[in-house]
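The freezer alarm interrupted the setup, so I double-checked each line after restarting. Inputs confirmed:
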Amino acid sequence: MAWRNVWRSPTRSWVVISAIALGIWAALSLTGFATGMMKSYVNSAIENSVGHLQIHAPGFTEEYDLKYQLPPAPALEEQLKALPQLQAYSMRTVVSGMASSSQGVRGVVVKGVVPGQEATVSAIKEKLVEGEFFPEMRGNAVLVGQELAEKLNLRLRSKLVLTFQGLDREITAAAFRVVGIFDTGNTPFDGGTVFVERQDLNRLIIPQTDTTTVPSDLVYEAALLLQDVDQVDTAAALLQRALPEEEVKTYREVSPDLELYESQIKNVSMIYLVVILLALVFGIINTMLMAVLERIKELGMLMAIGMNKLRVFSMIVLETIMLGVVATPIGLLLGYLTINYVRENGINMSAYSEGMASYGLSQVIYFDIEPGVYTEMAIGVFLTAILAAIYPALKAIRLKPVDALHSF
Amino acid sequence: MAVITTKGVEKVYNPNKIPVKALKGVDLEIEAGEFTAIVGPSGSGKTTLLNIIGGLDRPTAGYVEVGGEDIAKMSDNELIDFRKQHIGFVFQAYNLIPVLTARENVEFVMLLQKRSKSERHARADELLEAVGLQDKVNKRPAELSGGQQQRVAVARALAPKPTFILADEPTANLDSESTSNLLDIMARLNQEEGITFVFSTHDQRVIDRARRVVTLVDGKVDKDVRQ
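Predicted 3D structure, all chains:
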């Protein structure tokens, strides 16, 4: 009887069903957008240089003091290769310094890399917009970000002087030739990071009086890419046991903002869902209240002939749930199709790209969603329907049959 | 044996504001198998009396016994259950459930009584045949005439085998032919099956067919005539 009552007024029922379905679609799309944006941000950070795991000597990341060295490269490499989850690694020297051209000076982080290793871990090689990724050449090569190039008026073959402290804490400066310009879409990164060859950097930081330190052995940072990002905690634990005196950190620990971002996205999705469902609650209450008020005489008759209050209450609640049962698959399907389409094709946000790049977000956002969100949505709608049904159902059972029967 | 007994039944509406005394002490006994019409001018209290007898309303004072039970003291839920088991209602406006077919309407109270499907089907078909609607079992109320709907309502009222049927102006919305058909059916059921009928009515045709006529005036029994 509840099912048939739903279809007494098909137009009204379809309006409510459409509202619920569109609400679900909107909540799913917003969640897909937010999750896609988060993953874009996190992946961008991982791709650009963070990797899934990083290893440093304790104390290094506080001040980039060169006295905090990792074990020599060959020994370290052996430990890394023993990790079962490993996909690729890059062993780097990292110093903070200044970059200066004829047009100005900027604070930068200088990353000395082994080109072959770096290309397997970060996406810098793919993000080059001009030049080459460390071609064979005489002299010191440097890759700069598009942002830095614009600020210091650098082009390919431009000279850039990098100044930094050496192992002996003396200031060292050296001229580098710009061989490539990259654009990761992350403005702060592009404006504050340069890449040089590790052997070139190590030669510069080792004092000339030091004849024992082998330049190729010096490593300050190892960035690792794993086969599966979900293995990151397990791999970190394994590596920490293998290197008890070093600091092994996951990408969340290296960049706490990534962890914050990840956790906030879940909260944000929940907020979208709650707000949309709250709006739906009032729409459903309105519809069901109308459905009860226009059936006062009939409800009075039902109670007169013996339908008890629990049954009347259940009937109203059931009618409301049925509206949700029809609407939910429609909304979920619309959401699923939208997310899948945008997951493949992306949404071009280039109209907002400048603002987004300054936050480390890419121009094209690809929707993404955890499968569990669909279930959460369905449960949310079910609970919303029950909540919305309570007031109209209470109104129905508070009717006195004698008054209801004689109403107009 | 009396199926309905009222003693000193009073009903006052709006007792705290402007009190209106609809019933001023009604004493009445209706025996099993009676075909009784309660008549009176508008405002005489007949609908109020019917509501009280039917357990839809409670008296302000007095005693009401139906089927041997004091219904004036029952709670709302107890009254709902009591009506389901003992009282069949026929309303002026038919009041069929519009989304159910004729057969489903007749089965409805038996469904509430948790009778089996086969029992409900058999009884519904039997009653619809008794009221001459055996070929309309799958029609919804909107597909039936006023007279046909009222006959379905009578079948529905009879379905749970109640102690008595209460009919409030059952012919008010019917034409003469439908009225005549309905009264024939009710009279036959009363005579052949011994079903007790209590009507509230203005309709002279109903009054003429009743075997007992109780006249209410100003909330009291003025006349009680067996015809």
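Quick read of the result. Chain A touches chain B through 20 residues (CB under 8 Å).
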